Fold these 2 entries.
Entry 1:
Amino acid sequence: MIAGGGYIGLEMAESLVRLGKNVTIVELAPQILTLFDEDFAGILRQYLEKKGVKIFTSEGIQALRGKEGKVTHVQTAARELEAEVVLMSLGVRPQVELAKQAGLRIGVTGAIWVSEKMETSAEGIYSAGDCAETTHLVTGKRVWIPLGSTANKQGRVVGVNICGGNVNFPGVMGTTVFKTFDFNVAKTGLSMREAEKERLHPVQAVVRGYDRAHYYPGGKESTLKVIAEKETGRILGGQAVGEGPSDKFIDILAMALHGRMTCRELASVDLAYAPPFSPALSPVIVAANVLMNKLEGRIEGIQASEVRERVKTSKESFQLVDVREEDEVKKQRIPNSIWIPLGELKKRVGELDKRKEIAVHCQSGQRSYKACLKLQHEGFENVKNVDGGMLCWCYDLESTPIDPSPSKGEG
Amino acid sequence: MIAGGGYIGLEMAESLVRLGKNVTIVELAPQILTLFDEDFAGILRQYLEKKGVKIFTSEGIQALRGKEGKVTHVQTAARELEAEVVLMSLGVRPQVELAKQAGLRIGVTGAIWVSEKMETSAEGIYSAGDCAETTHLVTGKRVWIPLGSTANKQGRVVGVNICGGNVNFPGVMGTTVFKTFDFNVAKTGLSMREAEKERLHPVQAVVRGYDRAHYYPGGKESTLKVIAEKETGRILGGQAVGEGPSDKFIDILAMALHGRMTCRELASVDLAYAPPFSPALSPVIVAANVLMNKLEGRIEGIQASEVRERVKTSKESFQLVDVREEDEVKKQRIPNSIWIPLGELKKRVGELDKRKEIAVHCQSGQRSYKACLKLQHEGFENVKNVDGGMLCWCYDLESTPIDPSPSKGEG
């Protein structure tokens, strides 16, 4: 039993499964990995469940029960779970008692306040690492993100400054990466949710991120999300999850954040290409192009979570169209979607209702983008492309006989 | 027999060796891979020679001989080589005949001149890809660097512009990567040689570039070079060669070039760290710190090629000091070097001559940096650290019994 679905809990889940243990994660929040958006946390959750990890979200732990000094059961808000060991990975807090007693200023984050020189409120006393707060370079706000990489850099800054030098530690981008089983999970900058909380207007692009040219054998894939600000095109952050080079994609995006790049600038960066290392267009560049398509108003996007909501609540005014091929749809499809393969869209366009809002999806978002353009050309005005398509759909699926469209019933 | 030691030739060398062929590369220039500095081309050369590839440099091909329509021998400036097949990989030139006949302007590079919109000198006619020249974003000069990644981006720009849009392709950083056997070889921006040709004053840092924390099993290493401008600290380029993540390092550096970063800025970027993905300080950041040490005048560096020259020509005024441990020195050492392990340096400092120029080396440059600081502390004024130490020494080596120092003879 692991209490807490953050990255330490998820890393430990792998280790414990490899030791042959049955692992259950209980998380109070509605999703694991709350630093990530719901869709990407959902991709990871599905993967972990396939690996045999049980996950319960939106469930607080109410009590640990046991006998003879050993835990035997965990009582959550919804159930009682048997447990041999309970690993508490509920996060950490900065230990600032000593600093408080010394009269040092504690920052808004609860960690020790420091200047850019890593100097505390008392002249000549410095603080670096997991007890010190710093600045988030996207939001400009004070944050406390304890990481070894940051501590290393801050330590050098303190070292130089106490020896008479004069250097600054400007802050962080919130870059993070971890590995669980064979999934590499990484993030930099803001998530959609975090950007919205900052009252920004974020737009996202979700693409498949291969680590090599499509014809080069042994390829691995991560799903990659890049987020930009609607008005300016400025890159705000990115997330990557999968067996592919998530760390590389996120490092490129972290550098884009440091360079305060727009998605237009990002679309023409000169990254290292040869077939064993990358597709000819880096997935980061493809995502930047998708963002430009959106920002220039070609096609509007819609998030999977919104689609689910609309399918539930706006049946009368909303149509979800699946433009994949038969073999893909047979495996699994989103309940209540209308299936029209891309190639048949033109002749079957009459099956769709122009007065309704239409969201189109495929596997990743590429074919559905083309479908949206076609529908617009046919006079449909309220057409949206589902960001990331099936890749980002972490809700219910059907694998039932195909009923291609409610109005026809062919196939 | 492969004529030409560029990356196509080196990629083919691998394929042919894997087919069981004896492969010889003949290159007119004094080194293979002329886009890279001599030291990094030397690292690769040593690796290829270990894989069984014979390499002759500074040797032009004078004739191909054969009988019955088949080649049997290749005559170079220095020798005659047997050959079953001769692969000509001498580079390509843009095919611009059609453009010339059409009256289009040909650029200084010999490729088709285009504007930032990829429009040729004739309004409404566009050119993209391997026939079109572009701008090098570090030098600002026109260049012709035909690559698939660039062609892809240019193609999109042309596509948008001919459909009534208005976008630019700003140019390239000269980023390139290729794989030969298990070595990943990558570059962005300018080499030391190219920067000197531009009358810049480049300074280099060479570090070991691991792909994970040192204690995490299965690690792979590339040797990484980062180059900055002496006066401003602006990053000018980088090179990486080895089994490690050369492509990732170079992508980070390409992004630093796009962001016009200085090495001070690069030293505090927030890259993705977890033990399976990177050391706590990315090798790129370590290199940026080494560059700062140099630019701030802590310790001057000296390139391996200069050391070799000085050892040859300035015996009376130059001392090369090896501060590695006995087991390392026993394997191989640079001829005419003085061996004093770092730990013994303080007590044996009297063996060195303060009036002479002293270059110190170790395996990678880290221990020799400490040795330089110690020597400066002991009053030595003309002390230099050999960039990259043994990693960058691609010249003669001895593996003879140890004569620890000319003056003592211990060990």
Entry 2:
Amino acid sequence: MNIKAIQKQLSNFADERDWDQFHNPKNLAMALSVEASELVEIFQWLTPEQAKAIMSSGENEHVKEEIADIMIYLIRMADKLNVDLEKAVTDKIAKNAEKYPIKLAGKRQC
Amino acid sequence: MNIKAIQKQLSNFADERDWDQFHNPKNLAMALSVEASELVEIFQWLTPEQAKAIMSSGENEHVKEEIADIMIYLIRMADKLNVDLEKAVTDKIAKNAEKYPIKLAGKRQC
Amino acid sequence: MNIKAIQKQLSNFADERDWDQFHNPKNLAMALSVEASELVEIFQWLTPEQAKAIMSSGENEHVKEEIADIMIYLIRMADKLNVDLEKAVTDKIAKNAEKYPIKLAGKRQC
Amino acid sequence: MNIKAIQKQLSNFADERDWDQFHNPKNLAMALSVEASELVEIFQWLTPEQAKAIMSSGENEHVKEEIADIMIYLIRMADKLNVDLEKAVTDKIAKNAEKYPIKLAGKRQC
């Protein structure tokens, strides 16, 4: 995924509509959490089995759109805060590996 | 960003710890929303100006980690649901451009 | 506020519609968080000044409804988990007073 | 539950610590959503059966505290916005009864 290209696209999108004024990181964090909840909402009354079958249901496009909405705000926020997304992910996976070593993993959930 | 490589890494990480049993999409959506709220929490008492300066504050590493946590669950969820993240984002940006045409954009916020 | 009376009303409401099957605490926690995000969404692009004036705007009924939705799920969840809401609140305020003693309060935000 | 008494208590609590400056409705909505996610987090990896048994687990006090945190922010927000909580709940239950009439309820979930 070409993060920088998407960031340029989203930056232009916001500028063309004079929306950059609203895109401070506090507002972007709120907007991102709202989209994350729209994804939760699709699953809230489903059993785990129904949840696993979601992409074979009438909600598959809805799921893709909410996932995209979260990704869009995350990429936009990383741009405004100058966070290298790929490095942040790599660093965190490494940190998680130390926090949850394999031999003790059975005792903790993540 | 090499999404497939990260998905392989996360899949191995979960398998090594026998965590795949917890990774149905309902639980992953919940976990993702929890991480999104941990990002919101960093900003909740800040003014917009303090929010814009967050990466010059003692919270810059915390911000990067929460952004990474959200991305990790998003990438994992897309893998479990077989969603092409890049296509989902491209499609949604196109849909947003239709929903918020430039000449009417001043009247709506996003 | 007569919590027990509202709990009886909500219990009947769910039974009449055969919805109790969906009201396990995991689902109720999800639904409550979704409503909390619907309240956040009203404010996400507003300045602090615009936020303070929200009840004089066209969104005042929307705010009341989202606040009610959160309260309804909270009261329902407390009923299903047999949590005494009033006692839980009293206990937590007391715990907060110890955690944030007045003379040190200026150094921490809540 | 004596809402006005709790509101007085919370108002004094904030004033004693000079925290009222942070309590605009935008920040309070964010804080409330963060607490709602802390409640979700308790359940995120649990099966529905484990979720139903939560109050017999080591997490019962944690659940009570998160429920209390959400209620505290809700009561505080209603005070700052001058929303009558009891009336808002009564009105919304009535509105829900119209939106989800009993004979059609089997086809929709809430």
